[in-house]
Amino acid sequence: MTAMTASEACLSRPAGAGGERDGCPAPERTAPHASPHHSPHAADPSPALLAQVLESLPAGVVVVDGEGRITYGNALALSYLGTPLVGAWWREVIVRAFRDFGDGEAVPLRDGRYLNVTTSPLDAGRGQVLLLRDVTESRAIQEFFQRQRRLAAMGEMAASLAHQIRTPLTACLLYLSHLEREDLQGEARRRCADKVRSCLDHLEGLVKDMLAFARGGQLGQEAIPPPQLLDAVRRHVQPLLDEAGCTLEVDPAREAAACDRVLRGNREALSGALQNLVVNALQACRRRAAQERAADYRGRIRIVLADGGTKGGQETLRLLVQDNGIGMTEEVRARAFEPFFTTKPEGTGLGLAVVAAVVRAHQGAVWLEEGPEGGTTVGIELPVFPAPEPERTPAEHEGEEHEGANS
Predict the structure, then answer these.
(1) How far is CA 230 from CA 176, 254, 257, 260, 383, in A?
(2) 347-353 long-range contacts, CB within 8 A, separation 24+
(3) Would you say the pTM of this structure is higher than 0.85?
(4) Residue 252 to residue 263: CA distance in whole angstroms
(5) Residue 109, Cα to own-chain centre: how many angstroms?
(6) For burial by CB atoms within 10 Å, which of 183, 212, 319, 379 has the most?
(7) What is the fold of 53-134?
(8) Res. 126 pLDDT band, cuts 50 70 90
(9) CATH value of 219-389 in 1.20.120.10, 3.30.565.10, 3.40.50.2000, 3.10.150.10
(10) Dihedral through CA 39, CA 41, CA 46, CA 52, nearest 10?
(11) 7 membership: H or E segment, kind and range
(12) Within 10 A of 139 (CB to CB), how many other CB atoms are there?
């Protein structure tokens, strides 16, 4: 007979009420699993402790109930938003404390500071919790490094700019020397003076484009409805279109659909960038007309608005500038945004570089592709935000309070 092991011998003995067997160790009992977030022996934190934790946070905390009234604000929130806070309507605090509420990423306070505002809903529709973080310093650091990058880019372009300036400047000096000749009279003198003016205009364009490129990231936070932006572009380029016999089309239905959203940034910079693209399209149409000499050809430029979808949780809007002009080769499209690259004898090579700088400064993207009618399409994609509600006047506030008192 085979001998039993010690463990088998213990298992063969009768067990007591507690599961132990004579002469054998008691079986191990496994403790129930404890929550990884909360010890079963720990007491719930007291309201005083929770209040101390909220006051110690390095951020402002605001609790808004389901009706939009503030029920709690810690000391830091009070220092950001001022008084009264608890008991006030959140929408009234927004008007009082913020210059422009915007998207919450870097919201400007009226005292010059910037806050990052994030929200988290409470259960059962009981309101929401807002976390306010001061990002004034980090925003200033970001702007500093953006400026440093622009200055570095300007340094890289300095040699190219000197070369670009030298050529028209030399020509200008040559024409001026002709004007000094006493035998140059009448029509010949006028033509020479026109050439001097043309050279100076070219130099002014170079300097203007260079400054626009350098200032590409100096942006505000103005709310810009897309239809207003397009109206400004049409107003400025219409005389050029009329002179060239070209048309500019914008789909009115899509333009109207964009009224409930706004772009944010520098109105003049964005308008200038779009005008630049329309003028480029106009020049492409002129070059095609001169090349083909077809009586039935008519230059046509279209601005198409389209939803860009959502990128990283941010809604975007696409603006496509399309023309039926001479078009670009794939090689030219690959280099078109390089500073000082141009295929036009009169071009500065900075137009599209300025457009790209402005779009990037607005956290957008820009690209080139072949147009639907054989010309070129320039695409711009920019973040969009819900249109802000118009600020109410003191009289409107008083009217609401009066209605509430009478109800």
Answers:
(1) 42, 12, 13, 15, 16
(2) 348/164, 348/202, 348/205, 348/206, 348/209, 349/164, 350/206, 350/209, 350/210, 350/212, 350/213, 351/209, 351/276, 351/279, 351/280, 352/276, 352/280, 353/209, 353/213
(3) no
(4) 18
(5) 19
(6) 319
(7) Beta-Lactamase (3.30.450)
(8) confident
(9) 3.30.565.10
(10) -50
(11) helix 6-12
(12) 16
Q: Which residues contact 213 (CB under 8 A, 6 or more apart)?
A: 150, 153, 154, 339, 350, 353, 354, 357
β-pair type (300-311, 247-250): parallel
pLDDT in tens, 177-211: 888 888 888 888 888 888 888 888 877 876 776 67
Nearest to 364 by CA among 278, 275, 266: 266
What span, in angstroms and rounded, lies between the C-alpha atoms of 387 and 223?
8
Q: Does domain 137-214 have CATH number 1.10.287.130?
A: yes
* Domain range list for the chain: 53-134, 137-214, 219-389
Whole-angstrom distance, CA of residue 389 vs CA of residue 396: 14
Which residue carries 């457009």 as its tokens? 355
